Amino acid sequence: MDNQPATSGPDLLLKKLAEFRYELRRFLLFSECAALEAGLQPQQHQLLLQVAGAPENTAVTISYAAERLALKHNSTVELVDRSEREGLLERRADTDDKRRAILCVTRKGRLVLGRLAGDHAKELNELAPRLTKALKHISFDAHRSNFAEVR
Amino acid sequence: MDNQPATSGPDLLLKKLAEFRYELRRFLLFSECAALEAGLQPQQHQLLLQVAGAPENTAVTISYAAERLALKHNSTVELVDRSEREGLLERRADTDDKRRAILCVTRKGRLVLGRLAGDHAKELNELAPRLTKALKHISFDAHRSNFAEVR
DNA sequence: AAATCAATATCGTGTCACGATATATGTATG
DNA sequence: CATACATATATCGTGACACGATATTGATTT
Hints:
The structure is a homodimer of 151-residue chains.
Chain A: H1 11-37, H2 42-52, H3 62-69, H4 73-85, E1 89-93, E2 101-105, H5 107-144
Antiparallel strand pairs in A: 1-2
The structure holds a DNA duplex (30 and 30 nucleotides).
């Protein structure tokens, strides 16, 4: 049956995936803690990032933020509510389409975000090699693991 | 048209980070949906993955899972409770140390996990290039952006 | 044996994402 | 141009879940 080396068989992919998710989770934890220490809820940080980091020519509406955060509209509305309440963000009326709310990061928001961005870049600089490595291993396995599909 | 390139100034790092988090979030959403469609809560999937994907020689306890998931102990206990209740996982007594609970994925759990692993490998195979690319860009920027600026 | 440490468990609380639904504005169609 | 439909945002109630504080049991040390 399984008289095989420890790192082989169907478990190999699981090990690689587990390692990848572990590294990923560690980064996310770092990010969450960094945000909290900066006085932001992790999701508020993500919202500010997507609003401030949007391309110049796009209208940054609630819908846009929802898509970038992969959230439902209503969840995003609530996130914006909370962020606006804390002065990180502003809703501005769109003269073209009065249904829409244009989102603007306030000075306070930009300040916090800028600090977080630096920290994240530094952390990612360390993490990137391990993450990339883990990814490559999985990609390599992906081909050979299309056998035991229990469809 | 701009005489300056669209991607310049202090916003450059924010744009890169935003793009990276967007790709990352898309993967996480895929993973969450895949888990739910397979009948698992996303976190249950992660728990099973870390338990089944652990190295051979390590004792897979609650503490181990907590560390791999970057959760507090009590959160992990509850996650294990929910998973055990659904027959995905089992607690087994550790004869050496009776405080510890050894975690074992059930046959049912392994089956679901195996299917998810295949899907994830395939998805990561597509995502990996974009994610790696985004990471490289950030790493490149990290050096020059060790300060917080407001435009 | 007492004190201390370690692993797991329990309980109450707060955050937040969601589905369902509502309202207002824009767009298309007869 | 009135009516139907689509789109953007907002509201409300619900549930999952992560956490701090605390408890309990078993190991370790002195």
